[in-house]
Specification:
It is a single chain. The chain is an all-alpha fold. The chain is 76% helix and 3% strand. It contains twelve helices and two strands. The chain has a two-stranded antiparallel ribbon with strand order 1-2. The chain is globular. It starts with a helix and ends with a helix.
């Protein structure tokens, strides 16, 4: 059955919205909720889930199995990407995810979402310093607007913050570390695409494979693996939350791949950015993360600048940039015709 193009776009977009909406809600419930009824030393009732490595490990192994299943059902050409690229990008990818999950212990989910929306900042800085790139004035204006919006949103005032005073700044520092690692991950992945042009499923498979191994070793060395198992045995409901996070994350990635394959990365970026805004809104409504007018204005600046950056910056870059692997393909064509 042939589904009309507009209907397919709506299905993929709704799939991304629904999957990551549930992902964000369950993640905030897991990282900021409490389990059990025992009184803790700080006077609160119930234990907090503090196992950031275990949370990311569960997501990585489920994403690996999901990608393995997709490649088994629909095999692709052999991946010739150098192992070092995957190992390096997996390390920076892991540090970004772990930092974000740890930050959620001290900052509300809307703050994390808006902060993570500032990815163009590390991408631009690393592009200028390491990649020796140059950008248009439109791109610089967008990034400066994002910086301003993030500052307005994340600036704390005691009357709107219900977080421990001694942790002020720690969540923001972890978000900054996460953004820096995102920038490094993007730089390594660009080199991957230029050298061997692996597919999205192949990158998903190999990066999650290395991430699972690295996290497994880290959990053994730090002892978090055993502590996590003991926590999960005491509070069996945590398995339901972890399963929902893993399932929603894997389904969300599937819909993103379908969107990119059928409608291109620009359409996918617009959908995912719109999804972030509604995730912030729903988190505010459902969890009572109160935002003042200044924070709403900051969030508006961030997402408005992101849309302008996608509509102008990426569109112009796409017209000037050769597809990955194009040079290699031309060389092969010359050999065949010579």
């Amino acid at each position: 059955m042939n589904i009309p193009e507009q209907s397919r776009f709506a299905i993929y977009a709704l799939g991304i919205f629904f999957s990551y909406f549930l992902y964000g809600i369950v993640q905030e419930k897991l990282t900021r909720g409490r389990y059990g009824d025992q009184v803790q030393p700080d006077g609160n009732v119930g234990e907090r889930f503090t196992y950031s490595l275990a949370l990311v490990w569960v997501q990585c192994i489920c994403n690996y199995l999901f990608a393995k299943g997709m490649l088994t059902v629909k095999p692709q050409k052999e991946d010739t990407t150098h192992t070092g690229y995957y190992a390096a990008s997996s390390l920076t990818y892991l540090l970004a995810m772990v930092s974000t999950n740890m930050a959620l212990r001290w900052v509300p989910y809307p703050t994390a979402v808006v902060g993570k929306s500032a990815k163009p900042i590390p991408v631009m800085i690393l592009g200028v310093l390491i990649g020796r790139k140059s950008y248009s004035w439109t791109r610089y204006a967008c990034v400066l607007t994002i910086v301003l919006g993030v500052i307005l949103f994340m600036f704390k005032e005691s009357k709107v913050s219900n977080l421990p005073a001694e942790t002020t700044g720690l969540g923001e520092l972890l978000l900054f570390l996460s953004l820096s690692m995102d920038g490094l991950t993007g730089a390594v992945q660009e080199r991957m695409r230029a050298s061997s042009a692996p597919s999205g499923q192949q990158m998903m498979l190999s990066m999650n494979y290395w991430s699972t191994l690295m996290l497994g070793g880290a959990m053994i060395v730090t002892g978090e693996g055993m502590a996590f198992i003991q926590f999960a045995l005491r509070h069996s409901e945590v398995w339901l939350h972890l399963s929902m996070i893993a399932l929603c994350g894997a389904l969300g990635q599937l819909f993103i791949f379908l969107m990119v394959a059928n409608f291109g990365p620009l359409a996918c970026s617009v959908v995912t950015t719109t999804r972030k805004f509604f995730t912030v809104l729903c988190s505010v409504l459902l969890f009572g993360n109160v935002l003042i007018a200044r924070q709403w204005f900051g969030a508006f600046l961030v997402f408005a600048a992101l849309f302008v950056d996608m509509l102008y910056g990426k569109n112009s870059a796409a017209t000037n940039k050769k597809p990955p692997g194009e040079g290699k393909l031309k060389e092969e064509q010359k050999k065949l015709t010579s």
